[in-house]
Automatic annotation (TrEMBL):
<dbReference type="GO" id="GO:0016740">
    <property type="term" value="F:transferase activity"/>
</dbReference>
<keyword id="KW-0808">Transferase</keyword>
<dbReference type="InterPro" id="IPR002575">
    <property type="entry name" value="Aminoglycoside_PTrfase"/>
</dbReference>
<dbReference type="Pfam" id="PF01636">
    <property type="entry name" value="APH"/>
</dbReference>
<protein>
    <submittedName>
        <fullName>Phosphotransferase</fullName>
    </submittedName>
</protein>
<dbReference type="InterPro" id="IPR011009">
    <property type="entry name" value="Kinase-like_dom_sf"/>
</dbReference>
<dbReference type="InterPro" id="IPR050249">
    <property type="entry name" value="Pseudomonas-type_ThrB"/>
</dbReference>
<feature type="domain" description="Aminoglycoside phosphotransferase">
    <location>
        <begin position="24"/>
        <end position="257"/>
    </location>
</feature>
Length: 359
């Protein structure tokens, strides 16, 4: 074990696990929190430091997770696992370190693997199934019992407003100007789902908030999706945003880290399979309006993430972790290329949605 994990060992003493800690190592590719895998007493755990700059009141996350833990049915009854929180020895759900940062401990889901990209239609169907199961499972809880952990998280118009505020009209650098033109040509997109909520067509439900491929664990044969992890962003929201975000991540087979926008494609076959798996779990529960609005969620999510990456680049990479300056700009271009390909395939994607929900 590397010496500089000693501060983590100190923190771990507060949690109700069997000492000693026999191993600690960094875990995952998250862009916001710091995550470690640790082993103690023959079991594995996930230790996480919540990013206090991103989550204004991290305790709200813990309150939401505790509420989820009081669900009358285990998620396994629907074929889904979500990691359990390990309480502290005092019975609380997290620990604050001397700097004020919040740490929490969860079960590490054993015998699972994480896929950098989907390799088959069957895997895609599984992704849709677990997200659908998660929405079905959480729908049994009153959405008003859950706190908003990240205010404005999917307020696309808010992100657009903050990006616009960085420029006097016509003053953008030449490398940014074409992106701004692309964005302005789609400014109505930022309002579409909000309007659907305001007019009562769709309503907030409990959402996962980050159902990207990295956050779905498969069994060791990479056949069956077993678990949905990364539960920080569970909060009231729109299932259209969740499904759109899932497709944004899974159907861009080259991944968020691709560097050439010209190569980016939205894979319609994978999308069809994810939607079919999702529809299997949700068909008898979603309304026609919910389904009609799914396409807007698919189109808006890469647009919104592109706005967020671009804004962060222009503000000096304060929000998303980057490996080098300029990375957020490249990532923004990739997301906008995905928006463009989704628009090119507009009719085909809408047809795939209809097909998936046909019972
Ligand atoms: C962030 O930290 P991570 O990797 O779980 C972000 C998501 C983005 C995602 C893009 C709280 O998630 O919204 O979709 O990066 N989470 C937050 O990879 O902003
Ligand atoms: Mg996350």
């Amino acid at each position: 074990m590397t010496a500089d994990y000693s501060h983590l060992l100190g923190l771990c003493q507060h949690f109700a696990i069997e000492p000693p800690i026999s191993a600690i190592s960094p875990l995952g590719r998250g862009l916001i929190n710091d995550t470690y895998r640790l082993e103690a007493g023959g079991r594995a755990y996930v230790l996480q430091r919540l990013n206090g700059h991103v989550f204004p009141e991290p305790e709200r996350i813990m309150v939401n997770l505790a509420r989820l833990g009081r669900h009358p049915e285990p998620p396994e009854s629907l074929g889904l696992h979500v990691p359990a929180l390990i309480p502290t020895r005092d019975g609380t759900s997290c620990v604050r370190d001397q700097t004020g940062a919040v740490w929490r401990l969860m079960d590490f889901v054993p015998d699972t693997c994480n896929l950098p990209r989907l390799q088959s239609i069957e895997q895609a169907r599984e992704v849709g199934r677990v997200l659908g199961c998660f929405h079905r499972w959480t729908a049994a809880l009153p959405v008003e019992d859950f706190a908003v952990t990240l205010p404005g998280y999917h307020d696309t118009a808010g992100y657009l407003g903050r990006l616009r505020a960085l420029f006097e009209p016509g003053t953008a650098a030449t490398e940014i100007a074409p992106l701004l033109r692309f964005i302005e040509a789609r400014s109505d997109l930022a309002e579409t789902l909000d309007q659907a909520v305001r007019s009562g067509r769709i309503a907030p439900r409990l959402t996962h908030g980050d159902p990207k491929l990295d956050n779905i664990l498969f069994d060791q044969d990479a056949r069956r999706a077993l678990a949905l992890i990364d539960l920080d962003t569970i909060q009231p929201g729109l299932i259209q945003h969740d499904l759109g975000d899932c497709l944004r991540s899974c159907c861009n087979a080259l991944g968020e880290g691709e560097t050439d926008p010209a190569r980016v494609r939205f894979d319609l076959r994978l999308a069809g399979a994810i939607l079919a798996g999702y529809a299997e779990a949700t068909r008898d529960w979603l309304s026609g309006e919910d389904i009609d609005c799914l396409f807007d969620g698919i189109r808006v999510m890469p647009f919104e993430l592109g706005l967020r990456f671009l804004t962060d680049h222009l503000q000096g990479d304060r929000y998303f972790k980057v490996d080098r300056p300029g990375r957020n700009l490249i990532k923004a271009r990739i997301q906008f290329a995905l928006v463009a390909d989704i628009e090119r395939q507009d009719a085909a994607i809408r047809a795939v949605i209809v097909e998936a929900f046909r019972s």
